[in-house]
Amino acid sequence: MSPSNSGPAHARWQRAEYRVDCDPAALDLALIHRFLSEHSYWARGIPRALVERALANSLCFGLFDEHRQLGFARVISDCATFAWLADVFVVDQARGRGLGKWLVECVLAHPQLQALRRFMLVTRDAHGLYAGHGFSVPEVPANLMAIVKTDLYSASEDGMR
Ligand SMILES: CC(C)(COP(=O)(O)OP(=O)(O)OC[C@H]1O[C@@H](n2cnc3c(N)ncnc32)[C@H](O)[C@@H]1OP(=O)(O)O)[C@@H](O)C(=O)NCCC(=O)NCCS
User: Fold this and answer.
1) Which of 36, 102, 129 to mutate to test ligand 1, by most ligand atoms within 8 A of the CB atom?
2) Whose CA is nearest to atom 33 of ligand 1?
């Protein structure tokens, strides 16, 4: 599934009235920060400045209709061998229309994310969404290691955000 535009511009896909767009300038930062800090189970309380820094250093995918942003995903990658998919969401009012599946499809179709040796993510309960796109539970989970700080943002003071 090639992007609808070609050349050096940011990748973009169109499906009926919906659009997935990798142009960072199109992103609604307030919406992304609100979802992550108030509604996500993985980044609750994250300060806006951290979201901005994370996005600035990621390949971002905004999901839009003609009027506003409806969803988001971002990829951290060397664009050669490895990628990490993070912060995937579709706003409540737009769920159940296949948009989440399409968003992941667009991520995997991005020209800079082809032929990677490993594409990873963490999910609490959306395995079915990703399994449909080829992700699977690692054969040997014990081979994976991580440093995880789950309570990092809940500990921040308001003045530090
Ligand atoms: C997960 C999410 C992005 C799915 O978006 P969506 O637009 O409603 O999804 P779709 O309509 O494309 O359908 C998703 C498919 O994945 C499946 N699925 C599996 N686990 C799911 C889950 N936890 N939540 C939603 N769908 C899930 C659905 O059953 C559906 O498959 P089907 O069409 O065969 O029934 C959306 O529910 C969301 O933003 N949830 C809150 C944030 C979140 O949990 N993000 C994922 C973090 S890993």
Assistant:
1) 129
2) 98
In short, whether 120's Cβ falls inside 6 Å of ligand 1 is no
Mean pLDDT by 10 residues, the chain (161 residues): 75 98 98 98 97 98 98 98 98 98 98 98 98 97 94 62 33
pLDDT at 33: 98
**Dihedral angle over CA of 44, 11, 101, 96, nearest 10:** 70
Q: Give a yes or no: residue 45 inside a domain.
A: yes
pLDDT score at 73? 98
The confidence score (pLDDT) of residue 52 equals 98
Q: What pLDDT is recorded for position 3?
A: 86
Report the SS3 class of residue 22. coil
Structural tokens at position 146: 């991580």
Q: What CATH number is associated with residue 16?
A: 3.40.630.30
Q: Is 133 in the pocket of ligand 1 (CB under 6 A)?
A: no
Distance (angstroms) between ligand 1 centre and the Cα of 140 equals 25
| Residue type (1 letter), 127 | H
Structurally, the chain folds into a number of domains equal to 1
Provide the domain limits for residue 76: 8-154
List CB contacts of 58: < 8 A, sequence separation 6 or more. 74, 75, 76, 86
